[in-house]
Amino acid sequence: MPGVNNISSNYTDFKSVARTLTVVENDLPGADKLLKNLRFTKNTPIIGITGPPGAGKSTLVNMLIEQLISKGNKIAVLAIDPTSPFNFGSLLGDRIRMSKHFNSPNVFIRSLATRGSLGGLSAKTIEMADVLRAAGFDYVLIETVGVGQSEIEIAGLADITFVVLVPESGDEIQNIKSGLMEIADAFIINKADRDDADLFANNLKKIIHQNPGEEIPVFKTVATTGTGISEIADFILSAKDIKNTRKEFLLAEKAYKIIQQKRMAGVDKKKLQQGIAAALGNSEFNLYSFIDKNYNSEI
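Now predict its structure.
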């Protein structure tokens, strides 16, 4: 297992970083000690990019990487893919779209399955992001699956959160108000060459202006051609030293996720399923009684 000091001082050793992430992701021996000894020698912002499936997030991240490394930055990417709730397998397709950066000495890319976390973010995401921060990258980009609660949960991890939408979301714009308005530091309307993109952007800005406080930027992009990506990169670069007013909230959310994982460590999900299957033979089966009888000590 690679040492923490080695990771902190030499982020260009991608094999060492990858091995450390594997130790943490799989809770191998030494993972807890490694995490407790992480040292953060530089301010590395975590950039969260979320939004619905099909919004072009992976293509956008791919183009954003190009912009950031062109300015001399070292970039790490965690691409979170949805996990099947039945076999816990993951397509890990995001990595394919970023394949042109695989051999870049300035870009480290790691795919991560959600492992059944309905919100799309697990405690492992938090821990692996911290490993990358300790490794000394200039920016850590995290692309979420964009389903369930992941749009909200990313606020508990990212210093800057981008919400990616497409013009076709126009009919649902009222439905995204409450949650996303609270966590978005900026909106990106991707595929802005499509019909009604300008109308959608104007409607979104009107909703933003209804809320008091700091104005949230709205960027229009066409990720497949790189249009508008430089403006997003400039926003990220200019925001690097801005004080995060949500730091206490962010840390509390991270701590909650990690505590939740530790307390649930003794619960074997496959064994749980088997136990429920057996208990269902009783016509008077009660889920809450079953949980209290079999798992009260764990939770």
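The first helix runs from residue 4 to 9.
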